[in-house]
Amino acid sequence: MEMKNGTYDVLKYIALIILPALATLYAGLGKVWGLPFTAEIPATITLVDTFLGSALMISTSNYNKHL
To answer: What is the pTM of this model?
Structure first.
């Protein structure tokens, strides 16, 4: 699996910054405001983030094999 540099950069930013921040934000606000699913939604976001990180690592590994 290989992807273009721009796609990789955007997905890496999402995986490293956006998704962890979103999970933390929802978990924190959920406790303060009594939002529903304060455990399930952050856990789901974290699972998606872990999958995305794995996909990016596979892409990086494949890219480095061609160097």
So the answer is: 0.88
Q: Is pLDDT above 80 for 67?
A: no
The tokens describing 51, both together, are 């999958």
| Spatial separation of the C-alpha atoms in residues 15 and 12, rounded to whole Å | 5
Domain count, the chain: 1
DSSP letter assigned to residue 15: I
- Domain range for 36 is 5-65
Nearest CA to 3 among 55, 47, 67, 48? Answer: 55
Helix (H, G, I), strand (E, B) or coil at 3: coil
Q: In angstroms, rounded to a whole number, what is the distance separating the alpha carbons of residues 26 and 3?
A: 30
Length of the chain (residues): 67
